[in-house]
UniProtKB/TrEMBL annotation:
Belongs to the pseudouridine synthase RsuA family. PROSITE patterns: PSI_RSU. This is Pseudouridine synthase. InterPro entries: PsdUridine_s_RsuA/RluB/E/F_cat, PsdUridine_synth_cat_dom_sf, PsdUridine_synth_RsuA/RluA, PsdUridine_synth_RsuA/RluB/E/F, PsdUridine_synth_RsuA/RluB_CS, RsuA_PseudoU_synthase, TruA/RsuA/RluB/E/F_N. Its EC number is 5.4.99.-. The lineage of its organism: Bacteria, Pseudomonadati, Pseudomonadota, Gammaproteobacteria, Oceanospirillales.
Amino acid sequence: MPSNLIVFNKPFRVLSQFSAEGDKTTLAHYIDAADFYPAGRLDFDSEGLLLLTNQGALQHIIASPDFKLPKTYWVQVEGDISDAALEKLRQGVELKDGLTKPAQAERMTKPDVWERSPPVRYREAIPTSWLSLQIREGKNRQVRRMTAAVGFPTLRLIRYAIGPYTLDNTPVGQWHHIEPTDQLQQEVTQFEQQRKSKTASPHRRRTGQKRPPFSDDKRVAGRNTGAQPTSRPRRK
């Protein structure tokens, strides 16, 4: 039986959804797997690794920053990125929605990746460079805003890895099933057990259990009890 996890190498300008939106290309153009949905998202103008699953708990663990699965990006920027800029990325960058968490940022040689269509527009007078950037949070368009904040706008953005999963052996536009790692499966089991435990909590009121009466001179904090029916006798 196929596993409940899919690895997909998303091309440039493809929406991370199956539902149509105007004339934009969606996942439905590439993936034919019933009941699978993206675990997290990847921007329309970004490329690379997207994980999909048909299991709710697994989707939550992969997508939620609470579980802190690191995401590694290969980023082509405008200009020859400096050591000072890399150090700022490592320490955290102040954005409009707050300070980013420290990232792992390293200069890298140009990776051996597919040609983008359409290609990145180059300016002869300005060089470009590549860096590997690993983050553990998910602010909107975070990587692009981080590199811009340190003076090196992003030209091309490829997500290479999510936790232990990478783009290795997955050509652009292709997908395949993959087994969850033992650690990820263990986190899924723990998450489901905690959810069941909360559902069965003894502090929750059982079905059919009556609410204890309140005296007239007391009200539930924050609750609008409304006017009492005039036909109802007042308690003594």
